[in-house]
Amino acid sequence: MSQLLKVQNFSVSTDGYGAGEGQSLERPFGHADPRQMAGWMFATASFPGRPGPGGTRGLDDHLVRDFHHGIGAEIMGANKFSPHRGPWTERDVERWQGWWGDEPPFHTPVFVMTHHLRPSFTLSDTTFHFTDAPPAAVAEQAKAAAGGLDVRLGGGAQSIRSFLEADLVDELHVAVVPLELGAGTRLWTSAEDLDDRFHREVVPSPSGVVHHLLWRR
Amino acid sequence: MSQLLKVQNFSVSTDGYGAGEGQSLERPFGHADPRQMAGWMFATASFPGRPGPGGTRGLDDHLVRDFHHGIGAEIMGANKFSPHRGPWTERDVERWQGWWGDEPPFHTPVFVMTHHLRPSFTLSDTTFHFTDAPPAAVAEQAKAAAGGLDVRLGGGAQSIRSFLEADLVDELHVAVVPLELGAGTRLWTSAEDLDDRFHREVVPSPSGVVHHLLWRR
User: Fold this and answer.
1) B-contacting residues of A 25-64, CB under 8 Å?
2) Looking at residue B28, what is its pLDDT?
3) How far apart are CA B179 and CA B11, in angstroms?
């Protein structure tokens, strides 16, 4: 197992949703509050978007630190890339280059899975490619582009599920946040869903989130 | 705080000892069994000395992964470098180049604190330097050599204590292993000893060790 396909720092609600309903430009996580879903990461010293020094250096931080470590490519679903639905017009393409500004936190090739293709583009040291290939083919493309390093599967929940169904995921770190969403995009009904195929450690953090660390049996 | 001085993956017994009594070539941890002290690391996929694939990818592994991450130099005490006591003869110097064989796991400059100096030497991409300077001066040397990266303080317990006394440590990860030693080189009487100066999270691992994650207040 030389190159792994990994899910890192993926937050879900206690009822297993990775995002709420009704994603839009103003509400990238739908009716879920991003500060509630991802706040545990924002508080850490190693969060890539941290504006200045400070931040915690405990368990949450040790997990967030792993984000860039040995990663050579990212795969993400269309809804992680944008709230846009349907085909891209030329004007859409000009206006939308992801949520992350001029310095996306990936620093690698990124493969966006979508039925609505558009040309690749580069922001700083991140290049976004668009592909409508199935998970196994995208995993292969991403591994080839990763220069021997691991591949991060960035989400959302629907993309992770499709990779799990195709048995392409080697390792997952899922953070369960103390929040019920009731609806949205679901990763799992229960964390135990994956116990037949993955080892799983459950590690409660002092911050209130519960980390689930899974790796292939 | 651009460059940190960090203690990583340092194992102590429940009564706070980093090593037992009577270190020798055959017993690098004195009367403490290295497999009991460091076994939690040996089991992980990311342990630098792992002979082949496999290993766990849970909490212990996520902490061990951090070992090389952003580290540009290591500082260690004389007893971590060797069981040798007293001045080095030319023959000793020829015969002893550390415990780690031809490929030491550091891959950076290493500063060995000792009253018994000997010439610097290089094995693969690790260069060992020997210094009798006090902790503050060694920390400065190591930071200058680290190329902007962090510095690892590798131990043993006595060296870590001397750096703590001089208030030079920014972060510590200490793994308390379920084993009482009764005697040896002590890191602390109780983990609470440092609570006036450090935040501390206590994270029990499914493996049986309890991780203490400390960072400066």
Assistant:
1) 45, 53, 56-59, 62-63
2) 87
3) 11
Interface contact flag, B62 A66, Cβ < 8 Å: yes
Using CB atoms, pick whichever of B58, B62, B215 lies closest to residue A199: B58
In this prediction, residue B171 carries a pLDDT of 97
**Structural domain spans, chain B:** 5-216
- Asked whether B67 and B48 are in contact (CB, 8 A), the reply is yes
pLDDT over threshold 60, residue B40: yes
Measured between CB atoms, which of B69, B201, B203 is closest to A69? B69
pLDDT at position B53, please? 83
- Spell out which residues of chain A touch residue B173, defining contact as CB-CB under 8 Å: 62
pLDDT digits (tens, 9 = 90+) for A132-155: 999 999 999 999 999 999 999 999
CB contact under 8 A, A62 and B58: no
Q: Which two tokens stand for residue B89?
A: 């003869």
Task: Determine the pLDDT at residue B52.
Answer: 81
**ipTM for this prediction:** 0.90
Q: Which CATH number fits domain A5-216: 3.90.1170.20, 1.10.287.1700, 3.40.430.10, 3.40.50.1820?
A: 3.40.430.10
Q: Does the beta carbon of B206 lie under 8 angstroms from any beta carbon of chain A?
A: yes
Which candidate, B157, B155, B152, places its Cα nearest to that of B16?
Answer: B157
